[in-house]
Amino acid sequence: MAVTAGPSPTDAAPVRSPRAWLSQYSWLGMGFAFSLSLFYLIMFVIPFGTAIWLSFNNWDYIQKPVFVNTRNFEKLLGDSGFWDALWNTVRFSVVEIFVALSLALLLALALSHLRPVYQYTLLAIYNLPVIMPGVVSVLLWKWLYRTNGGAFNAILESVGLPAQPFSKSPDQALWCITLMVVWIFLGNSSIVLLAAINEVPDSLLEAAQLDGASAWKRFTAVTLPLIQPAMAYQVVTSIIGTMQMFEPFQLMPGPGHSTRTLSLYTYQLGFEVLNLGYGAAVSIAMFVILLSATLFELQRRRKSWDY
Amino acid sequence: MTATTTDLARLSTPYWQRTRWQTWLLIAVLIGGGFVMLYPFAWLVLSAFKLPADIIRIPPTLWPEEWSLEAFQVVLSHKIGGGSLTRSYINSIFVTVTTVIAVLITSTLGGYCFARLRFPLREPLFYFVLSTTMVPFLTLLIPLYVVMDRLELLNTLWVLIVPSVFSSFGIFLCRQFVYGIPLELYDAAKIDGAGDFTIYTRIIVGMMKPVISVLAIFSFRATFNDYLWPLVTITDGGNYTLPLALRGIGNSFGWFDYSKVMASSLLTLIPPLIVFFIFQRNLVKGIALTGIKG
């Protein structure tokens, strides 16, 4: 760089003095970078560091933290509360993603056959629950799920089916929440998939049709491979979203710990039983699980579209 | 010749322009599905206008027997731990508007800085910001609470605003967008003697309108609907935001008179509904554009 002939407007001048070094940079850029770094230091680096540090300590928020080495993590391995919470989180997450994505794909496929005007209008209806605050949705569904005089049981009885306990039953409570979450996010997921389907060139589908490919074959051999990136994106954001979901589990809990997930468990440990060290350990475990799930999914999907 | 033209016309005809009975069946099914989606929502709206005797009826009836505004009057005068629904309304609007404006400024400026300006550690800093999105909020929840305690922000509205003034997602989105703005525009302004900040305010912000509206909706939704963070940091009812006030009303009335819960839910939904109907087009386009689920 120092031997470049003639001054270049984009290249930095050879560094000689601090002044010269500074002059190659933008003051606005440096000011922004400084405030950004300060913000992330206080709002991310320190809290994340504290979370890791705290997971090796016991702290009740009042007395001084006590260093306990890896005992929190050892406790975690033998804690049925943790494993139950993990099992609930995974069950909820997998079923929600599978059901919501299948329905969203069907919806997006159906919508893709309509004119854009109809697409937008129908999407607006399917998207309505997405804009509602989670608390509103949960309070509403909690009421619809009531055992006595709930709207859902009224429907079941009107078609001659027995009334269900819904959220009152440890076997059904988690799936009641799952159904509600599918309802909330269905429209949102289908927007992403619809955008991808609309991008599939019609000429490819026409060519396949001329070659005598059936509608099913056209879907599996043309559309599906081409929307893989959108599907992968949807799966990954859904993993992140469902694993961290909190409102339904706190406001519409099933009996006992039947719907306690990792996020609710972390909250309870930190803010109800004030076992902050152990709560931090659970939250670190959650971070590791989420990161592994995301990376695993990305890796798995990447194989299928790298061709 | 004519045959070729019709062939071409047929080949370039999108699927949706071939009206067949299947298309109508499809529309019918989709509208049916739309009714299923709207069904819970119908309960919310109609129950808000019911009288207490009407709401506890078994089996329940969707349509109110007699339309009444009683539930609205009761919840608007109801005290929620030292605050009220009206108070929470003001708090929510204040927090949401402030946060959205802050996020829009930091994200557009950040996108511009990271894409076009030179400063030390530019790339490492950007990838660091991006990587923070991989850490779940639940992991940061407990220590962030401690930090806010040390900063003496707990139980003020600022605790809801300060941690969100920079948005990793917003900076990422804007950076991608600024890369799409032709470099010539930037260079021309530079040659005319415009400073970095002038270029930002005069050129970049104006060109970023599509991404700004998308970001505004996402940011609005995230802030207005947030529940966990206010739940942890706000204990004084006077500083409750709407989700917390709703939870309070659910605790007070949920056991016997749900019309009050539905009435306050309906009132809470007004701001998101307004934003939704103004920006619905942008939202769809924006999600399609960015491929982001908010």
TrEMBL record, chain A:
Membrane topology: Multi-pass membrane protein
CDD domains named among the record's database cross-references: TM_PBP2
Claim: Transmembrane is one of the keywords in the record: yes
Keywords for the protein's UniProt record, in alphabetical order: Cell membrane, Membrane, Transmembrane, Transmembrane helix, Transport
Bilayer-crossing regions: 27-54, 92-111, 117-141, 173-197, 276-296
Cellular compartments annotated: Cell membrane
Superkingdom classification of source: Bacteria
All copies of domain ABC transmembrane type-1, residue ranges: 86-299
Gene3D superfamilies noted in UniProt: MetI-like
One annotated GO biological process: transmembrane transport
A single GO cellular-component term on record: plasma membrane
PROSITE patterns, per the entry: ABC_TM1 (PS50928)
Database matches in InterPro entries: ABC_transporter_permease (IPR051393), MetI-like (IPR000515), MetI-like_sf (IPR035906)
Family label: Belongs to the binding-protein-dependent transport system permease family.
Protein name: Sugar ABC transporter permease
Record organism: Caldilineaceae bacterium SB0661_bin_32
TrEMBL record, chain B:
InterPro entries, sorted: MetI-like, MetI-like_sf
Domain ABC transmembrane type-1: 89-279
Top-rank taxon, per record: Bacteria
Matches recorded under PROSITE patterns: ABC_TM1
CDD domains in UniProt: TM_PBP2 (cd06261)
Keyword Plastid: no
Pfam families linked to this entry: BPD_transp_1 (PF00528)
GO CC terms, sorted: plasma membrane
Chief place where the protein resides: membrane
GO biological process, one term: transmembrane transport
Keywords: Cell membrane, Membrane, Transmembrane, Transmembrane helix, Transport
Segments crossing the lipid bilayer: 21-42, 89-113, 125-145, 157-178, 199-220, 261-279
Annotated membrane topology: Multi-pass membrane protein
Subcellular location, record wording: Cell membrane
Family: Belongs to the binding-protein-dependent transport system permease family.
Protein name: Carbohydrate ABC transporter permease
Native source species: Caldilineaceae bacterium SB0661_bin_32
